[in-house]
Amino acid sequence: MKVWIRRLFILIVMIIFLVAFSGSYSALSIDNLSTVVAIAIDTSDMNKLRMSFQFTNASSVSESGSTEQSPSIIYSIDCSSISNGINLMNTYIGKELNLSHCKIIAFSEGLAMNGISEEVYTLFNNAQIRPSTNVVITKCTAKYYLENSKPLAENLLTKYYEIFANSSKSTGYTVNATLGEFFSSLICDSCEGYAILGGISSEDSESTTGIDSQKDSSSKANSSSLSGKITSENIGMAVFKGDKLVGELNSIETLSFLATRNEISSFLVSVPDPNDSSSYIDIYLTPIIDSRINVDFVNGSPYIKVSYSFTGRIYSMKANSNYLDDAVLDKISDSCSNYLETVFSNYLYKTSKDLESDINGFGKNAKSKFLTTQNFENYDWLEHYSDSFFDVSVDTSIRSSYLLTET
After folding, report:
1. Where do the structural domains in the chain lie, given as residue ranges?
2. Angle 215-216-221 (CA atoms, 0-180°, nearest 5)?
3. Which numeric CATH code is attached to 266-407?
4. How far apart are CA 143 and CA 352, in angstroms?
5. Can you state the percent helix, strand and coil of the chain, rounding each to 5?
6. 131-144, pLDDT tens digit by residue?
7. How far apart are CA 294 and CA 45, in angstroms?
8. Hey, which residues does 283 pair with through a beta bridge?
9. Which of 84, 194, 317, 381 has an alpha carbon within 20 to 30 A of 295's alpha carbon?
């Protein structure tokens, strides 16, 4: 009797395991899934959209070894919508697309100018796509951007996509712009959206135009001084008003955005040398405290005060430069403060007067000046932001490099 009960128990357990796991294996087996690492969305002559899906070839990665860059495959399809494009691609490859590891969603500049709210809403509504996925606006076709995304310092393409936006914290020349943040901006009454500006580097540095050779901070994607093997580059920002692309920011303007939003830990700037008007001094700056923002209203127009505080050390050295003298360091500090005040002020007026887009989110500070939420909504901040004027102050404390100070 006991043997019969034991056998029955074992049989029941086996049946439970077979029922529980056989279905999940058939639906979610790795053999039935194709992992997408990036999506490119362009306009199409044949249909509304052209979607390109970038896959990694896991078997090739394991065979090639750790010293080789992971290969990728790109398939494109013309479609009338994001959902139809995914469905058609599922049918074409005979497998279910796995979008949970998608790191980049790239939109072409032409598509973004016409508005991308429908595409963003659909992507955000897809349970597989993570809100942390980065959004890139490309100066070339989005597919060409993916085809040339070849990491210079990483073996894995997925790792490159994951970390390149994080360089914004140390350089300030790009941003970490996610799908979740962009979606939030579309339903926000006090801020506007932005994205990473992507492009393709030039094979010949002599073909680069519009770059001040003494100020690398004026560069942006598709017009940087990087030369060599053609590859993608991510420098600057794409600025939106609503769901439409309205302009771009270069690297120093992007740095200004990050400093205003307190999203940068340190950065390098070249400021005029107070003792030589024809040269610049490289200074490494770190924020002392967060930027302080105050919004008031004068005759119905926003009056925005922004204060910044930095400490820094001199990076570039010249012969016979007395960077240990306190008087010299005070003059350099004043030069740095004046330079940054001009840079930050120009940036803020560009967002207000030229782009008419509050990507800084000053509207969130302005809300406290209204008695009710309805009063704020009636004011229509996003339309009145273009009437703003600014008062910018920067305080910097510069010291010589650690090496020279200690010796």
Report:
1. 30-251, 266-407
2. 140
3. 3.30.300.210
4. 32
5. 40, 30, 30
6. 999 999 999 999 99
7. 48
8. 269, 314
9. 194
Please state whether beta strands 33-43 and 96-98 pair in parallel, antiparallel, or not at all (unpaired). Answer: parallel
User: What tokens were used for 99?
Assistant: 């979008």
Cα(245)–Cα(239) distance, integer angstroms: 6
CA 319 to chain centre: 39
Give the Cβ contact number of residue 276 at 10 Å: 11
Determine the Cα–Cα distance for residues 197 and 138; give it in Å rounded to an integer: 6
Residue 99 has pLDDT above 50, yes or no: yes
Which is more confidently placed, 296 or 171?
A: 296
What span, in angstroms and rounded, lies between the C-alpha atoms of 63 and 172?
A: 38
Distance CA 315, CA 265 (A): 17
pLDDT of residue 12: 66
- Amino acid 166 reads N
Write out pLDDT tens, residues 101-128: 899 999 999 999 999 999 999 999 999 9
Cβ distance 248 to 166 under 8 Å?
no
Q: CA dihedral defined by 258, 262, 265, 267, rounded to 10 degrees?
A: 40
Which pTM value belongs to this model? 0.84
Q: Is the pLDDT of residue 194 over 70?
A: yes
Written as six digits, the tokens of 247 are 């302009």
Q: Which of 156, 247, 151 is nearest to 195 (CA)?
A: 247
pLDDT at 173: 87
Q: Residue 139 corresponds to which tokens in the numbers above?
A: 């100066």
Specify the long-range contacts of residues 323-332, CB closer than 8 Å, at least 24 apart. 323/400, 323/401, 323/404, 324/400, 324/404, 324/405, 328/275, 329/398, 329/399, 329/400, 331/274, 331/275, 332/271, 332/273, 332/274, 332/281, 332/283, 332/398
Q: Determine how β-strand 104-108 pairs with β-strand 33-43.
A: parallel
- Specify whether the CB–CB gap between 358 and 192 falls below 8 A: yes
CA distance 314 to 402: 9
Q: Cα separation of 161 and 103, whole Å? A: 6
| pLDDT tens for each residue of 205-260 | 444 444 444 455 667 766 665 555 667 889 999 999 999 999 999 999 999 999 99
